[in-house]
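Entry 0007
Protein: tRNA-intron lyase
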Amino acid sequence: MANPQILPSGRKVDEAASAPPVVPPSTSEAQSTPTTPPPRRPRGPPLYQVYKQPAPLRVFPLPPFAGTTNPASLFHLVVAWLGQVIFPPASEPSVIHTAFWDHETRTIVVTDPKSMEDLWQQGFYGKGSLSRSEPNWLKKENARLGATRDRVSEMATEKRREDRARAKWERARAEQEALEQKRLDEDNALAQAEAKALVVAQAVLDQGPPAVRPPKLALAPVGPLELLALPNSHHDLATSRQTLSAVQEESADVTDASLENGSHSSKNDASDSNTTVSSDSTACKLRKSVRFSPKVESTVFERMDPPSPSVSSSPLKTITVPQADGQVAADPKTSEDAEASRTAAESVVPADIVVVNKEHLQLTSEEAFFLTFALGVLKVKNSNTQEVLSSQDLLALLRQNSYFPPQTSQQLQPDDPFLLHYAVYHHFRSLGWVPRPGIKFGVDWLLYNRGPVFDHAEYGLLVLPSYSHPYWKANGREPPRKSWHWLMGVNRVLSKVFKSLVLVYVEVPPPSAFNEECNPRSGMTDLLKQYTVREQMIKRWSSNRNR
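Output (structure tokens):
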């Protein structure tokens, strides 16, 4: 016997009484084999494991020490330290990646797939040449062709955008249907009111006196017959009065008949013209001729179709229009079916086909020099000579190509665009931020707290040179002047995407910091110390929101 259950309210419920009745399966259902659910796609590792290294370097931290609360942690610390002393790990950097300087595009590219993956997952360096950011074109292509079941972030983004567009379309369709229904209700109410008013007016007319025909007025004698019939004496006036009245009546009847015929004809003509114009206008409103290649189609849209008829649920009435050469254009539905079948046939990939990876990782000049000079995990080769460029040669090459057109080494200045931007990049990378190019939002750099995979950028940076050294003041060197319109435009763009604007001023050292060959006199490390970076945040103040 089933034990009763006690509910929170205190009442006892019998399980046997509360359980739903069991319905025996039918013979057909019992004999049919149960359908197995589709296999679930295996989930990949979590993001914090994929991007656990913030830099392409391996570190071996010691365990925490809590001597006051847990004396046993000291023993753990000593064991870990002795283990690293007796069995030291491999020196870092243990892996050095290879990149190539392309003279045609003036960019630094990485072609090795393993290096591309490591540089992206260990610090978010570079950008895929065929992708938005992460170099996953090969994975996306395999997923599109059905060679693998993996999914990429771009596919989820595309699906989310399609769902959002479909939801907007459905909302627009519902609003248009509601407006159309309201218009029909108002027309019906107006028609009923007019019919009721007409009945009341007809009743009033039936109860009133009979209609009186207005008297005919005599017309002035302006015609030739009237002028000849005018009397010349009293005798003629007495004898021709009857003749004149007869002529006037005949003229009045003719005039009334002509006016009535003219009014009827004008009304008929007006109605005909109105009918023609309305039909033409209706046809012009509902029919839209669109020129395609290589045929011309005319599509008639329904009144209830939403603003995007290309995705309308109601079928469109397609009218075939003859072409100039007398041939009839093909049915677009048949063409679409043929195109869909052809696409489906092309999407079937044989099992032995291999997709060639055509993507490479493109590094910015600042990222390449940071990996080469600051971390030492990258070596850049000349694509023509296959020679490895040293840090000094790479610095001179990147400084020359930061101008357009490229300048010679004798024309370089301390305020080169590369030096200014690299000072800012090195500064924020050292603080733990992830700088990324910000050309999409009209700024120089975007600052991410952890990376573009985890969250959106919080700040947009604009790099501005500052000439505060006495050398620049003596020579009258001034920073570039910007207008308030420019500043408000950039700030408005960033505020629409929930980012804050930061103006980064870089103090430019005098030319004495460089030698005759425009190279750093005391090394790149000491030169970076002379580029002082100052941040100034700009916020848009609104009187309605900031009171």
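Curator remark: The chain has a mean pLDDT of 77. The chain has 17 helices and 15 strands.
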